[in-house]
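W.,

You were right to be curious about this one. When I first looked at the sequence I had no strong expectations either way, so I just let the prediction run and decided to look at it fresh. Below is the sequence, 464 residues in total, followed by the output.
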Amino acid sequence: MPDSLSLLPAVVAIAVVIWRKEVILALILAVSCAEVLLYLKQPDLSLFGALLQGPVQSLERIISVTSSADNSRILLFSLLIGALMAYMRDSGGVSAMVNWFIRKGVARTKRQAGFISYGIGILVFIESNLSALTAGIVSRGLYDKFKMSRARLAYIVDSTSAPICILILLNGWGAYVLGLLSSYSLPESAISVLIGSIPLNFYALFTLITVFYTIYTDKVYGPMKQSEIELNSVSNQSDLEIAPTTSSLMLVPLLTLVLGMVAFMFWTGNGNLVDGSGAKAALYATTLACVVAYGLMIYSTKFNHQQLVIMGFKGMSELLPLVSIVLLSLALGSAMKDLGTGLYVASFVKESTPLVLIPALLFIAGAVISFTTGTSWGTFAILIPIGMPLVEMLGLPPSLLLAAILSGGIWGDHCSPISDTTVVSSVAAGCDVLEHVKTQLPYALFCGALALLAFLISGWLMIG
């Protein structure tokens, strides 16, 4: 079998997500394709036999992924984070915080109102959709008061959600990427590589700087300027409101999660944060935060045990598609490793592609996949199994390649009208989805061009 066929699972995954815009189906077909190719490598096995055995072995591949303790921790964490989000949201904690901002009148100017949404987007880094939802709900009335368009609000909350989540990393994003990195023999620990990618995540950094500039100078450009003139808004507030209770029902579990993740990183690393287990820390801290949220809601006497169980499982169910993506991406990475895809790509790149261009090419590939699928996480699942073997075989800087993949995924996600973050940001801000995409696109393209230039320069400096 030609070595070039080892690329087929990745091609299948990319083709299906572009065609059907469905990541889970793409990953299932890619895993099945990889297993069929692995069987074809065996002597005296027919194509018909491989086609029969491939799907069966795909199930076994998925099951084998859960035999890893860290993989199981990542999957369980992904479910528990859904329960925690439901507790903070449905308890009325988020709504109570909204009321606090309005009651205190902390915003007296356009700039202050803008920095409130910017600050909330940074503080609520636990999950990108929760960040956008919270910042949007809190700020809508303020933006209306100061005659700023909902399109501007949608841009700000969208651009301070995913970029912050991928930079702070004490959340599901960090745990997810750690899970994808865990199966590779890198020159540094997975968490060291992840931390090292932070200053190299150029798209996220340029995006946050651009948002800061927009708020500080009160200047907008392109379609956004027209929206400011028209003050185009579509109100969806009644669909989002939950009766407020007390802000502590959100703030205390959130602080428990943040402080718990840091503490458990130190604990699992025997006093060294970098040596800690990200998978263990994420699971332990999320479990503790769920227990704290549960206890606070029981103590408030507004909820009983049965209500909280239903609420928790409902939150978990909302993240089941995400958990499926995590499971399938781990299976695909394992299958492609056995197939030797990384070895072939590494040898091909070494012979035919200037190594200095690899970070920029991964950035562009990530943007294209993410734009067409609307999911940055699915993009990470496809590209990390291709990018990390290049580190193993060619000795390329792992943090730079990882940063290029992460940046590309975020960039394409920002430009995509089918991204869940795009939709949630639009709804939270009370802005039409297409209006949000149209007004945000020039800013995203500007930051993407700067990031591409930065990856070209970094490739030349760090590899050349």
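Here's what jumped out at me. Residues 222 and 442 are 7 Å apart (CA to CA). And, maybe more interesting for your project: Residues 232-240 have pLDDT under 50 and may be disordered.

Coffee later to discuss?

I.
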